What does this fold into?
Amino acid sequence: MRAKSFLFRLATATLCLSFASLAASAQSTLPTATAADRAEARAIFKQLIEINTTDTPQGSVTKATEAMQKRFLDAGFPAADVHLLGPAPNKMNLVVRYRAEGTPNEKPVLFLCHIDVVEALRSDWHTDPFQFIEKDGYYYGRGTQDMKDSDAALVATFLRLHREGYKPKRDLILALTADEEGGKYNGASWLVNQHRDLVDAAFVINPDAGGIELNHGKAELADVEATEKVYADYRVEAKNRGGHSSLPRKDNAIYELMDALQKLQAYSFPFELNAITREHFKMLAEREKGATAADIKAILATPPDMAAVARVSEEPGLNSNVRTTCVATRLWAGHANNALPQTAIANVNCRIFPGHSPEEIRQQLAKLFNDPKLTVKYISDAGVISDTAPDRKAIVPPPPIKAVFEPLTRITQEIWPGVPVTPVMEDGATDSIYFAQAGIPCYGYSAIALEVDDVRAHGQDERLPIDSFWKSLDFFYAFSKALGNE
It folds into this structure.
């Protein structure tokens, strides 16, 4: 993905030019949701938040997809166009097809939305994470940012379009899927591989990425995901003969693991830029001021100023855009309080810069630790542990499609006037990769506006500004109609 081919550079340049030219002509003609439309969307949002869809014994994706299936069937969608299917009883995906009028000349548009969420512990939160709470201008609950907000907005949009009798020129498809956040039954991958006919599309819109960056309420940037990192987990394990705790030794499995993790903490993977991140930093250099702007310009120089790279890297959000990052996220050790540990294990989570494979990074970690008593193994999304990792690399970003970017830019600027729209690299990873690998172009955009210092996805007290939800609802209604009219 990181290979800077002519097509890759051309696509990026064209994308930026398209955004610039479209930005100047935006005029506000956007219809807003009625009070009844908002009430329905809020009820859907609340229902989804209060269904636990974690990959735990208490969670069930199927309860959520069945609830949405009922809404579509009750609204009059043909049963033949509302598909509840999956490889496991509690991991059922929902695929809804909104039929075009007559015989469409174009392939469908697919909206890809995962409906599972990361586990949240009640003891860690100030509110119940699986209770939908409205407080101080926010909606609180697990999934309010990632990504039941967009799930609800798109379910409500499809229902509203159907209620209004809208007739698109091409089919619109909504997929609500399982296990994007981890688990054995990733819905996007399963649908692509087992039921391609249900999800085959001209392109994919994935609201699990992109959005509006706010700075004290002011919209400063609209990010559209054009490429993303590769996700990988590794099991770092130290073994020892153990013994009685009254006879401590320096060769302790915990100490050996700690030594490795301290090396990881002190290490930075090499600085890198690609066409997408370079364009993103150019935009940031124009927006920032003072020393920060100077440092960003310095890292764009040829050769880059490595002192400036070090300063820029101190900010986690910028650091993640210039290199692979790896961090220890879980620890296990020992078998008894009064025994020296025989085993110590850490999970190391990596977000790999496009162009590098999980196996390449696994080997780099083993070289960094340089300890024959340690093993570094790969953990698949299904939890399978193996001695080697896949050679899969990120996908080269597709060229911009006018049918996507013209309405995306126009509608974004109707809601947030004057905000620049720019391609970005997603620091995390999304289910887009499964469709991209199948040759279907994917574009990540949520139309969700968040303060840059209030991103709480996967974290404590996850919340969403209420106004942001209403604006995303208006965006997806207008965007869906625009895509359907192509």
Notes: Confidence is low (pLDDT under 50) at residues 1-27. The longest strand covers residues 218-228.
